[in-house]
Write a structure and sequence with these properties.
heterodimer, A: 97 residues, alpha+beta, 4-stranded antiparallel beta sheet, B: 338 residues, alpha/beta, 9-stranded mixed beta sheet, 9 helices, 15% strand
Chain lengths: 97, 338
């Protein structure tokens, strides 16, 4: 089972065409999971970044002055919550009379 | 189906929630969402029937619910040779071709119930169904859907191995014969947007292709994804405007306005290439090429910034607001025959 401990989802907002091009290059990097693709200047891009690539990606973004924020801090935490919610829902589901 | 919990996510197989390799299932095995579909058919025998348009790579049924007031024969096992004669004009809706988009399959389940509930009550839907059929494929990529529940929540592709590569699966929204292989898809099997070796190489895609061609009278094709809050029309592979661009654009504007009227959810709209990115081999470019004028793809809501793990409490609002946009497109299709 794949786990996503420490994986972050970054929301990146490109400010100009140069940053757009850089983000398009990032799309081609292995293990980058693009949740919301590169569209245009000022439009958010969401990328899931594996934990082991976080520092290099953040340095890359900072070096090019690309604005970004963390949309999901730790993906696995949310997935665990989702799993618990589903299990809880299944437990409480009553069979039809 | 009244007691089905529409406000929560459901697996394909509630029993099989152990992690591990997906078994090769027997065709037509009865699992959670499949069971819902059978129940809906059983409860509405004069309105809903189930068509099996094919099997996934791992042997799961590719079920399509047919909602029709025309006389039906049940059980119907679809074959290319069973659709003799002229079919009624129809609307196609598919949900969840990218398996990890769980809010999409959940919305599709709600749509199915909404259609049978509103028939005879909502004059607009009733008028549509008195003249047209609706086809609804709720789990368009069942192997991927199973895999998201059991092995990798973020999986979006099919599960067919690629010979000579350790990477598995094809992006089923890059596998259609419309600009196939052009920029906007990857030739690398390890990419999330791998287009596959040839157009229609994936049975999940080919089964729809065969069905659409054999039917021959589908007038609107709505392929539903999540999450970017967009309503998109052809083309994805070229920046040339579609012949019907003005009409498609005006209808998209109306549909997103209807959608926003419920909760204020903001959608952008336009052609795929201009609104999101260049994408080749996509579903709606192929359907448009087949002459289906009202070909649209939705990207459902992102409220809460959770992406593909949209909390379950977002399912019903998402489905309800999307339904308004679907009705706008279906009604326009009904009132503007071509």
């Amino acid at each position: 089972k794949d786990t996503f401990v420490g994986d972050k989802v970054l929301r990146i907002i490109p400010k100009n065409e140069a940053q757009l091009s850089l983000l398009k290059e990032m799309e081609e990097m292995p293990e980058m999971d693009i949740w919301r693709g590169v569209t245009g200047v000022g439009i958010p891009v969401d990328i899931r970044v594996p934990f082991h690539q976080l520092s290099s990606v953040k340095i890359h973004l900072q070096e090019h002055d690309i604005e970004h924020s963390t949309m999901i801090e730790d993906l696995q935490v949310l997935l665990d919550e989702e799993q618990q919610e589903m299990e809880s829902s299944a437990r409480f589901a009553q069979p039809r009379n | 189906t009244d007691s089905f919990d529409y406000a929560n996510y459901h697996t394909l197989d509630e029993v099989g929630t152990q992690f591990g390799n997906a078994p090769r299932l027997k065709p037509l095995s009865q699992t959670q969402i499949y069971r819902f579909q059978d129940m809906l058919v059983a409860e509405n025998p004069s309105l809903v029937s189930k068509i099996v348009i094919g099997q996934s790579y791992q042997g799961r049924a590719l079920n399509v619910l047919k909602v029709s007031k025309a006389p039906i024969l049940r059980p119907i096992v679809f074959s290319l040779f069973s659709t003799g004669g002229t079919n009624r004009p129809a609307i196609w809706i598919d949900t969840g071709i990218h398996s990890r988009e769980w809010v999409t399959q959940a919305s599709g389940t709600w749509f199915a119930k909404k259609i049978v509930t509103d028939y005879g009550r909502d004059p607009a839907l009733t008028a549509i169904l008195d003249k047209m059929d609706i086809f609804l494929e709720i789990v368009t990529n069942p192997d991927g859907f199973y895999y998201t529940h059991n092995s990798n929540r973020m999986w979006r592709k099919t599960r067919k191995p690629t010979p000579g590569s350790s990477c598995v699966g094809v992006d089923p929204n890059r596998n259609w014969d419309a600009g196939f292989g052009e920029p906007g898809a990857s030739s690398s099997p390890c990419s999330e947007t791998y287009r596959g070796p040839t157009a229609h190489s994936e049975t999940e895609v080919k089964s729809i292709v065969d069905f659409v061609k054999a039917h021959g009278n589908i007038k609107a094709f709505l392929s539903i994804h999540s999450y970017s809050q967009m309503l998109l029309y052809p083309y994805g592979y070229t920046s040339s405007p579609a012949k019907d661009q003005a009409d498609l654009h005006n209808l998209a504007k109306k549909a997103v306005s209807e959608l926003a009227s419920l909760y204020g959810t903001y959608y952008t709209y336009g052609s795929v290439i201009n609104t999101i990115y260049q994408a080749s081999g996509i579903t709606i470019d192929w359907t448009y090429k087949q002459g289906i004028k009202y070909s649209y793809t939705f990207e459902l809501r992102d409220t809460g910034r959770y992406g593909f793990i949209l909390p379950a409490n977002q399912i019903l609002p998402t489905a309800r607001e999307t339904w308004l946009a679907l009705m706008a497109i279906m009604n326009h299709t009904f009132q503007n025959p071509y």
